[in-house]
From TrEMBL:
GO terms for biological process: methylation. Transmembrane segments: none annotated. It is an enzyme of class 2 (transferase). SUPFAM superfamilies: Chemotaxis receptor methyltransferase CheR, N-terminal domain, S-adenosyl-L-methionine-dependent methyltransferases. GO terms for molecular function: protein-glutamate O-methyltransferase activity. PANTHER family: CHEMOTAXIS PROTEIN METHYLTRANSFERASE (PTHR24422), CHEMOTAXIS PROTEIN METHYLTRANSFERASE 1 (PTHR24422:SF21). This is protein-glutamate O-methyltransferase. InterPro entries: Bact_Chemotaxis_MeTrfase, CheR_C, CheR_MeTrfase, CheR_N, CheR_N_sf, SAM-dependent_MTases_sf. Its EC number is 2.1.1.80.
Amino acid sequence: MSLAPDVFTYVADLVQRRAGIQLDTGKEYLVESRLLPLAQEAGHARVDTYVRGIRGIERPADVQAVVEALTTNETSFFRDGSPFTALADDIVPALRSRPGGLPRMRVWSAACSTGQEPYSIAMTLADAVGPETSVEIVATDLNQAVLDRAAQGVYSRLETNRGLPSAMLVRHFEADGTSWRVREDLRRQVTFLRHNLLESPPFGGGFDVVFLRNVLIYFDLPVKQAVLDRVLTAMRPGGYLVLGAAETTIGLDDGWERVPVARGAVYRALTGAAGTTSPVRPFLPTPARAPLVPTPTVPSPFTTTGTVPAVVPSAAHAAFLPTARPSHLSAPVRGESR
Ligand SMILES: C[S@@+](CC[C@H](N)C(=O)[O-])C[C@H]1O[C@@H](n2cnc3c(N)ncnc32)[C@H](O)[C@@H]1O
C-alpha cells in the first residue's frame, strides 16, 4: 500500500519546516512505516487518511508526534571512539592551558538521542578533568520520547554491549533487572532539555565544547549553515565543536577552523558568543604528539536562514569530578558507524 503523493509532499514539507529534516522522494516507505503506528493509534487503517485528518488543523500534539516519528535516533556509547579520546587527550588540555585554567567546563551534547552520547562524555570527563574543574553537561534533542529515556538512564544489555567498555560498565552502572542503570552520581551531571536546533540555544551559551554529531546529515545546506551559525553564538571564543565522522563545517561556515584530531571531526570556534575573536591559541601539543596546526577553512558560499528566538537562562548544574584516567581513553574504543 503506497502513500498518496499529496500526503508524502505534505509530511516532507512539515518535517522540513519544523525540524529541518530533509525527506527526499523515495522515502515514502519510511514515512508510511514510521507513521502507521500513529495512524492506527488514532483509529485509522491507513496513513493517508490519518495525515489528511491532521493537516488542516496542525494541532501541536499531532505535529510533534509526526515529527518525532520521523527522527532517526540511532546512537551508541562512545560512538566512533576517537571524539572521546580527543576530548580527553586534546580538548581538555587545550582548554586547561587558557589563562585562568579550567575552573568550569560547559559541554552541550546537541541532538543527544537516548543519552548514550552525554553519558559517554560524562564518563570521559570523570577521568580527564580534576576536582578543580566543575563540569556541566547539557544534553538536548527535539524528540521528547528519547529525552525521557535518556533521563531514566536505563539501558538494555544489547545497548551496553554496543561500545561501552566493561570497566566503565562496572564503575558507572548498576544492575536493574536484566538492564543496567547509570549510577546516580553520573546521571546528576547531565541535564536533559528539549530543544530544536532550528531555534537559538536556550541555555545561556558560553559552551567550551559542543558535540553535534550525526544530525547535520539530515539537513539541507542552508539549514546546516544556519545551525552552525547558531551553535557558534553559544560557544565561548576558542571553544570546540565535535561533529560526526561524515560531517564538516568546511564550505558551510567560516566561523570555525578544523583541528586535525579525531579523524577531522573537531573544529574550533574562531569567534564566540559576543562575536569576539578568540584570544587563545589552538591546541597545545601534548608531549606524545607533533604540534597541531589548524587547517584553513573555506569561505561560505551560502546564506544564513532561520529565525532566532529569545534566549532563556541556563537550567544546567555543576558537579565535581575525580581525576584518575583509564587506559581505554588512549586506545580506540569500539564504536559503530552509521
Ligand atoms: C542519529 S541521532 C544522533 C545521536 C547522537 N548525537 C550520536 O551521534 O550518536 C540524531 C538525533 O537528532 C535529533 N534531531 C533531528 N532533528 C533535530 C532538530 N531539528 N533539533 C534537535 N534535534 C534533532 C533526533 O531526534 C535524533 O535523536
